[in-house]
Each structure stands twice: as structure tokens, then as C-alpha cells.
Amino acid sequence: MLKCLDQEESREVREFLRDSGYNTQALKARFGHTEIPHVHLLKLYLVGIAMEPNRLNILFQWFWIGSPVEEAVVREFIPERMIELFLKSGMVEREGGKLTSHFRISPFNDLPILSDHAVSGAGPMRKDTILWPNPTTRLCSDLTMRNPVGRTLDLGTGNGCLALAASRHSQSVVATDLNARGREFCDFNAALNGITNVEFREGNAFEPVKGEKFDLILANPPFFVTPSVRRVFSDNSMELDGFCRQLVRQAPDLLNEGGYCQMLVEWVQIKGQTWQQRMDDWFDGIGCDAWVMVGYMRLSVDYALIRVQEDRDEANSPAAQAALTNTWQKYFESRDVEAIFGGMIVLRKREGKNWVRMEELQAMPERPFGGFIRRIFDNRDYLATHTDEELLETRPTVPAAVRLRKQFAISPEGWKATSIDLLPGEGLPYSLALQPQVADFVALCDGKRTLGEIADQTAAAVSVDPAVVRAESCKIIRQVADRGMILL
Q1: CB-CB neighbours of 110 under 10 Å
Q2: pLDDT digits (tens, 9 = 90+) for 141-196
Q3: Do 293 and 415 share a structural domain?
Q4: 366 and 391: one domain?
Q5: Mean pLDDT of 242-247
Q6: Angle of the 451-462 helix axis to the 466-481 helix axis, nearest 10
Q7: Are the C-beta atoms of residues 420 and 435 closer than 8 Å to each other?
Q8: For residue 32, what is the DSSP state?
Q9: What is the pLDDT of residues 219-241, one digit of tens each?
Q10: Nearest Cα residue to 375 out of 396, 390, 354
Q11: Mind spelling out the 3-state secondary structure of 334-359?
């Protein structure tokens, strides 16, 4: 069991881990450059791959692999004071002349985060496992808008890493989880990182914060579409995508005006219905602008295979895995589920006529991309509240990250340009096809001249009626701004 250290003791442990080189770069160098799946590699170490005894490798064995180290060896490399603190906190325990850890430490940005271990010699993963920062955690972190806010809610906090990261741009953070073990980890990780403005509350969904208001809600909930609950951190008991739909429809009641909710979700496509039609009633009448970004799609058969394969590390027999896969497939077939989609939803509480934007991303975003998302919201607000006449008085600027891509094809006359695309260079993987003259026009947006001045200069250069060029200029800027490739 973990015991929170005091402020000075926590600082000592943090600095020891940092000074010992326990960081993402070191972990990747030691364990990441391999074609063997990560969990399989850790299992090889658990059964006996030798590691040269030194301070960093001892920390790896304790806090990454989960293997014990002879106490005599530990005392050669780890200072007595650190051994004392590790034992006092419960991060390390004595077991038969050896020192071992039942907790993993994952560097999350610059925060050391404790969780359960990824693998265990004790058998299958427990149902209430506290997960380490995994790819969806990091995706949710990269999606987060980091503008300063008053109150933030982290729903389904797990080990608390998203809440702790949000504490840096929030006056206060409430972290909730249905898993009672989340309190132990969230409180310990907050103390370990010297963070004091995070409060943990136990409970399901929004129940622990009913009637309260927040400026930002982050949610990496148990969104898997499953026939039954296998893991608290990934599965929920509601039918198909009902849990995610419920969260989307309830979240607005907890948002202040202008507040955002950023959530990872999965949803299904039913026979005879598009995925967009499936989601239409999620957003109907909720009083929020809604932006859906699809990251992946899996046919129901493939989805079942993938999810069942995630249990392969529990030593299920091929026959048991086949039977489980068949159960999943029958579950989807009986409900006419053709495919499962996964992605991100951003809600913004706003009075007035709300908009809904749904799109399928062609690639993963350039991370982090929370600021890019916020830019598009801001651009949309500006464009919706300003006429073309007012837009002509702005001084638009092309961000430094934006790039122009030209593609050429061979022709009898040599290389001939076939396409010109504007790319944001950051954030979402957008591209916008442009004519050469339009690309040249966009390049003139340097923040020094008004859009009207640029339009008039262009009109004079091509001998076209300035009124026509001004109207076209506004159309172009509105289109480019809606893809986040211009600053207004």
C-alpha cells in the first residue's frame, strides 16, 4: 500500500529519479528499440534476462519490469536515504532478502507517475488495475487545451496523470474515478510531484460532481464497446456506445458558458445507418458546439479480434480466445453492428445557434494539438461575428509552421506542376488545394497589411476589378482560417 511522503521527502525522491536518469529517453534506449511488443519484452526480463547491476538498471528492474533485486546489490548502488524513503512510501518492499516494487513509474512529460505494473508474475491482470499512461492517455493529453482556467474536471482519472498535468493551467482540479484504488494512486502521485490543487472523488461518471460547474472537462473514459466488463479502466456496463453518448449529453450541464469538454470515445455504426447519423442525436439540443474527429474505423469482426487479442498476455489458450472472439462477434451481429469508430469529441458550451462538425482524419495529428484546436474555435467565432467588410480591415498572418507542397508529374515539356497544397505543419493533418495565384496571395498575409490592402494590390497586379478581388479574398481567408492555417 502506498503512503504519501511529505513535501521535502517527495522532492528528494523526484530529484533522485531525475538525477539517476530515469526518463523517457533512457527507457526507450533500453527497452524501446525492438520489434518485440513491449509487454512481451518485459516478460522476457521477468523470467531472467540479466541486467548489469547499476543504479539506473535497479530502478528499471523495480519500477519498469517489476522484478526483485537482492538487497545487498541494492545497497551497493542506491543511497541509504533513498532506500529508507522507498520503503517508507511503499514504493519498494522487502520480500525474502530482496527488494521489489509492485508499482510502475512512467515518466509523463516531466511527471513521474505511479501505476500498477504492465505485466505480473502473479497471473492475470486484476479487474481494478490502475493503468499506466498509455497511448490513449497521451492522446488525450495532446488534445488538451492549456489556456489558463478556473476549475478543471478529469473524469476517469486512473493514476491521475491528466489531472496533475492540468493542475498547471487550472486554479483547481477535481479528479474522479469509479475505481476506488484511483484515490491511492492519484493522491500519491500528486504528493510525489508536489501538486496541491488536485482533489480526488470516487464515483461513477459525473455523479461525484453533480450540480457543479467547470471551465474544462477532460475525459478518457472506459469507452470500449464490449459484451461484458473485463477491466474497469477500459470497459463499461452500458449497451454498445451508450456510455459515451450519456457522457456527451450530460457534460454540458457541468460546463460554464464558454467552457470546453474534450473526450475520447468509441461509437458504433449500425446496418442501414451512417456513423454520422448515429451521432446526430448525441448533440441535438445540448447547447454546445461539437467537433467530432474520427481517428480509426474497425469492422466489427476485426474489432472483436483486436480486443480479444489484448488478453493474449493472460495466457488464454487458443481455444479460449477463439470462443471469446465468437462471443463478441455474435454480440455485434445480434445488434446489427457493422463497424466501430473511435476518435475525439470537443464540446464548447455556447449560447445561440450551435454548430456540429464531423470529419475523418486521414492521419494522426501532429502533437500536441490542443492549441491548434483552440485556434480553429477562435477563428470560427471571429468569422461568424464579422462581416466581409470587417474582415478586410484585419491583418491576417500565416503561422510560421504552415507549409506549401507542390507535386510534379513528367510531361513532354519536362516536370509539370500537378497540385499545390497548403499544409498547417502542426495540429490536424489538413491539406487545402490551391491554385498558384491563390497560393501567392496567401503568402502576402504577413500581419503588416490589411486584407483589403492585399486584395487591392493583387487586383492592380492582375488588372481585375478590386471589388471582385476583395470578395474572393474574403472567401479564401475564411476557408484557410477554418483549417487553422491563418491567424486573424
Answers
A1: 11
A2: 999 999 999 999 999 999 999 999 999 999 999 999 999 999 999 999 999 999 99
A3: no
A4: no
A5: 98
A6: 130
A7: yes
A8: I
A9: 999 999 999 988 888 999 999 99
A10: 396
A11: HCCEEEEEEEEEEEEECCCCCCEEEE
Residue holding cell 462581416?
Answer: 387
> Residue written as cell 516531466?
110
Least confident range of 32-36, 223-227, 421-425, 473-477: 32-36
Same domain as 397, residue 353: no
Structural domain including 154 reads: 135-372
Co-location of 36 and 160 in the same domain: no
Please tell me whether residues 334 and 430 are part of one structural domain.
no
Q: Are 155 and 383 in contact (CB under 8 A)?
A: no
What are 433's three cell numbers?
A: 488545394
Please count the structural domains in the chain.
Answer: 3
- Residue 417: half-sphere exposure toward Cβ, Cα within 13 Å: 10
Sign of CA dihedral 277, 281, 283, 287: positive
Q: How far apart are CA 283 and CA 479, in angstroms?
A: 25
Cell of 315: 495466457
Q: Provide the pLDDT for residue 124.
A: 64
84-88, 92-96, 251-255, 354-358 — which is least confidently predicted? 92-96
Distant-in-sequence, close-in-space partners of 143: CB < 8 Å, separation ≥ 6: 262, 264, 344, 346, 368, 369, 370, 373
Confidence check: pLDDT of 51 > 60: yes
- Name the grid cell of 399: 503561422
Q: Where are the beta strands (DSSP E) in 93-210?
A: 93-95, 98-100, 103-108, 111-116, 149-155, 170-177, 198-202
CB 293 within 8 A of CB 343: yes
The helix, strand and coil proportions of the chain, stated in percent and rounded to the nearest 5, come to: 40, 25, 35
On whether residue 232 sits in a domain, the answer given is yes
Residue 121 lies in a domain: no
